[in-house]
Amino acid sequence: MTGRTAGVPILRLGDVLVTGLLNELDDHSATAFTEELTERISADDARGVLIDVSRLELIDSFVARTLMELTTVARLLGARVIVAGMRPAVALTLVELGLQLTGVETALNAEQGMAALGWEQVAHVPGPSAPAALGDPGGSP
């Protein structure tokens, strides 16, 4: 790595890395982000990556190309990349500009993206409190 940092958090959830792109991502930050994420995929032995783009209001050709290259590199490292949360206006702009995210898997939102990577949302069912599960703390007969 060149020492540059994109300032984009990359979280690890088991063997999946979760990150997101913001509007402030310029060309240099996009390159640094790609380097950071690629290194994390390798170092963490990640099998999946979710990139949330729901905060992006636009994607230019450089960012689109960066996402395609990142997906290709991730696949070579054994990880599956899903881009989640693309706004309809962003999708329309990509189509109007003739930009294709070839090889990039997408999901409507982060939850669907995580499900595609094998994560399930489990409803929390409140169970008995710890003292009740251990017996009556009052010592009654």
From TrEMBL:
Pfam families: STAS. InterPro entries: Bact_StressResp_Reg, STAS_dom, STAS_dom_sf. The lineage of its organism: Bacteria, Bacillati, Actinomycetota, Actinomycetes, Kitasatosporales. Residues 6-117 form the STAS domain. PANTHER family: RSBT ANTAGONIST PROTEIN RSBS, RSBT ANTAGONIST PROTEIN RSBS-RELATED. This is STAS domain-containing protein.
